[in-house]
Design a protein that fits this description.
With 831 residues, the protein is an alpha/beta fold. Helices cover 43% and strands 17% of the residues.
């Protein structure tokens, strides 16, 4: 081994003589300044004042009785640490006063040093020193690699001996210098004898330093002390459990004696349940489970943790409706059921008819038939409230289970009893609440189930076991673990979107569709249901509050955009709140006369303020190229103006603007191509030269122009094929400079051959046309069957023309001067 490398001797520094305190290089550590160490404060003060806080630290080989009376350094190691004091002081601060007030002081190790020529001057030891330099061997990569592997292999055992938390360990594990890490571990090891620490401090060679770190022996008898402590604790715990068991046996015997003294009148919890099992026709499997659980309960102390779980489980089993007599007597009067449905819900004729058919069949057969009803429609259209009305009409008990956002099957089928805090699923909890075998259970928002199949299972698959008539006769809840019969239950589901319901589940459902309410239906609902209900709720029947018809229509047209009536109901409540506020301000005046809620009052600041929405209004003056289409939306119908113009070009389509969807863009292309063929066909069939020349001019203009189309309200997305005949008419109107009356609207899909195909939403479109004061609408002949759905008051004021070919539309608008191709116009009657 080569000689230890040292540098030239340095100037004298104060020598801090400690009793077993070691400071390793690159380590920060606190030196306590209490007890004997308080005598070290003068040295620290001098080091701070005269040497910028630098000093030398060495430790004694053995215990020192008095650090203030050291006359010789024979009992001290001569290899120590060059360090400095870490103290945050300003220039004006009194260092002596501060250090004298400290209980401990922070020191930072700089380098290993050899003490040379120590001297005592004025009762303070000072010494020169030489820095012990790291040898080149410590920087050899091969040596470092081997040492690092050896160190890492022993690292878990080394760290177990430290008191570091994870964050501190992680910080020092990030040290790039292995020597610094070894020094740090030696620094913090409080159990390491001082001579071992000194050997590590003296060792500048890494292999030697690491070996000394790994070979630190445990404290004498440490293992025996640990074993003795463990044995003592185990024995104490065993004695404690034995005493608890004895006391519980005493309590149990005392309870038995107390029951004997009280007589048979006071039955125990177990006796009550066992007696019910004997007297009532519970299923045999339930009897077996209850008896088994009660028997198991008797073998354990009353206050044992498992006893509480067993009691809750048995109580649930005995509460559920297992008996044939636990059913609700059903209403057999269909007329009464019909009356309840009519009283509580306006409109919904198709839905009510389907429900009454089903109820009649259930009453006739005496069975639920396994039908699962699914109400599908926009929010606020009465799906949930209709389910409650069905329960009232059938005189069955009702339970509501919300499925929105569920992603854990345990919320439906229960948690297994092995889990802490386990409970039954929502289905069994519903039966625990209603306590009958034949309730109406509403599974609300079934399309909002989270169908992500993860470790929590697939809720939609679990619902198959609940809803499928072939499976739900023996539904097993994970908590219950006993088959439960769901076959007598009428399940009603609600959804907004069928596409979100898994196909296997959808196949088992009877779909009942709910459409958006029309403005006329909303008006009737507000007059007959919402306003009376809210007047009663807020105790305002005594006041003569009169909502004018035009006021309700004003609210519907200008303040709400919804498919249902929730927002309308909220606005009616808000108006009544404003009225109540007025009664507090001017009570007598409001009580003495009738209060009419007019549109002017509604749009005042004290009520609803200015209108929020407005429907599209027809233009006052007609213009070439502008035609009223008819559109369906989720919140009803509206008119859709189509605007077309052209400029010089090559007989092509130009810009299509107004947020048109792909299907509507295709309709524009079809209409554009049909117009060219329509003009060519008309030219060939005309009988006069004047008309033929006019059509040829139209064709010439068409072939040298580009046509642009725009649908106003460009921020609103528009799509669908039903604007086909309106687009065709707008192109022809722009080309021929003939205006279309603004009180005419039209809807229908067009084909390349001019056929007009059926469309959807005719009822909503017709109501929108009537609201916008249109007088005539063109609709496909194939939609004739849907005219009966249009309200009578709309049909009476609206002329409906049925067309199957496009030329019927144009020749109705502009009858040809020659013999027309249509023998007569087909006009729908209002009957």
């Amino acid at each position: 081994m080569s000689e230890i490398a040292i540098n030239e001797p340095k100037l004298q520094l104060p020598l801090l003589l400690t009793d077993g305190f070691f400071l390793f290089p690159k380590c920060n550590y606190s030196l306590p300044l209490v007890g004997e160490n308080e005598k070290l404060k003068p040295i620290l003060i001098q080091a701070w004042k005269e040497h910028q806080g630098q000093l030398l630290i060495i430790s004694s080989k053995e215990k020192i009785a008095d650090l203030g009376t050291i006359q010789s350094l024979d009992n001290f190691y001569f290899v120590g640490t060059w360090g400095k004091i870490i103290l945050d002081l300003t220039h004006e601060a009194n260092a002596e006063l501060v250090i004298n007030s400290l209980q401990e002081i922070q020191l930072e190790g700089l380098e290993r040093v050899q003490i040379i020529n120590p001297q005592k001057v004025n009762n303070i030891w000072k010494s020169e020193y030489q820095v012990l330099l790291e040898p080149e061997q410590n920087r050899d990569e091969k040596v470092l690699t081997k040492l690092t592997e050896k160190f890492v292999a022993h690292l878990p055992n080394i760290l177990k001996k430290t008191n570091l938390d994870f964050a501190e360990k992680f910080h020092y594990l990030a040290m790039s210098n292995l020597g610094n890490f070894i020094d740090f571990l030696a620094q913090i090891n409080q159990e390491m004898p001082r001579h071992h620490k000194q050997v590590i401090l003296t060792s500048v060679y890494l292999p030697q330093r690491l070996d000394y770190l790994l070979e630190v022996p445990p404290k004498e008898n440490e293992q025996k002390a640990v074993e003795k402590d463990i044995n003592n604790r185990v024995n104490a715990e065993a004695k404690k459990e034995e005493k608890i068991w004895q006391y519980r046996k005493i309590i149990s015997k005392a309870q038995e004696e107390l029951e004997k003294l009280e007589g048979s009148g006071a039955k125990s919890w177990e006796q009550k349940h066992l007696q019910r099992l004997e007297q009532e026709p519970f299923p045999q499997e339930v009897k077996n489970v209850v008896r088994e659980q009660i028997g198991q309960l008797k073998t354990m102390p009353p206050h044992f943790g498992e006893a509480h779980i067993i009691r809750n489980y048995v109580d649930l089993l005995m509460t559920l409706p297992w008996l044939p007599t636990q059913v609700s007597p059903e209403n057999q009067d269909i007329e009464k059921a019909k009356q309840i449905l009519e009283q509580e819900h306006f409109g919904l004729k198709k839905s009510k008819k389907t429900i009454l058919k089903l109820l009649s069949t259930i009453q006739h057969t005496g069975e639920t038939l396994g039908e699962i009803i699914c109400f599908v429609g926009p929010p606020g259209t009465g799906k949930t409230s209709l389910a409650k009305s069905i329960a009232r009409a059938m005189e069955r008990k009702f339970a509501h289970i919300s499925l929105g956002g569920i992603r854990d099957v345990a919320l439906i089928s229960g948690f297994r009893r092995t889990y802490i805090g386990a409970m039954p699923g929502g289905i069994i909890q519903a039966f625990k609440k209603v306590k009958v075998k034949n309730p109406v259970i509403l599974l609300d928002e079934i399309d909002k189930i989270n169908n992500f199949s993860g470790y929590q299972g697939d809720p939609s698959s679990t619902l198959l076991a609940v809803l499928d008539p072939e499976q739900n006769k023996e539904f097993v809840d994970h908590y219950l673990e006993v088959p439960f019969d769901l076959s007598q239950t009428l399940f009603i589901c609600t959804a907004n979107n069928l596409s979100n319901i898994p196909r296997p589940l959808l196949d088992r459902m009877l779909i009942v569709s709910f459409s958006s309410y029309t403005p006329l239906e909303k008006l009737a609902i507000a007059q007959n249901y919402l306003i009376p209900k809210n007047l009663a709720k807020y105790k305002l029947e005594a006041f003569k509050i009169n909502f004018l018809k035009k006021s309700i229509e004003f609210i519907i047209n200008n303040y709400v955009r919804e498919s249902g009536v929730r927002e309308l109901n909220r606005l009616i409540r808000e108006i009544l709140w404003s009225f109540i506020l007025g009664t507090k301000i001017n009570k007598n005046k409001l009580e003495t006369k009738e209060v009419k809620i007019s549109p002017k009052i509604i749009e005042s600041e004290d009520y609803l303020d200015k209108p929020i929405y407005e429907f599209t209004q027809k233009e006052e003056n007609p213009s070439p190229g502008v035609v009223n289409g008819l559109a369906w939306t989720e919140v009803g119908g509206d008119i859709l103006p189509i605007e077309v113009n052209y400029h010089s070009g090559k007989g092509e389509l130009g810009k299509l603007t107004g947020s048109l969807g792909d299907v509507m863009k295709e309709s524009v292309i079809v209409a554009f191509n049909y117009v060219r063929s329509y003009l060519e066909e008309s030219k060939d069939k005309t009988n006069t030269e004047v008309e033929k020349e006019k059509i040829e001019n139209y064709l010439a203009t068409f072939n040298k122009s580009n046509f642009n189309l725009h649908a106003p309200e460009g921020a609103v997305k528009k799509d669908g094929p039903s604007a086909g005949i309106a687009i065709t008419t707008a192109i022809l109107s722009s080309l021929t400079k003939q205006t279309i009356p603004t009180d005419i609207g039209m809807t229908g899909e067009i084909t390349l051959t001019g056929n007009v195909l059926a469309i959807g939403g005719l009822k909503e479109k017709a109501i929108a046309a009537h609201r916008s004061k249109l007088k005539t609408i063109f609709i496909p002949k194939k939609n004739e069957r849907d005219i009966k759905d249009i309200p009578v008051e709309v049909r009476k004021e609206l002329k409906i023309i049925l067309v199957s070919k496009y030329w019927e539309v144009w020749e109705n608008l502009f009858p040809p001067k020659i013999a027309p191709r249509i023998a007569k116009t087909i006009i729908a009657t209002s009957a």
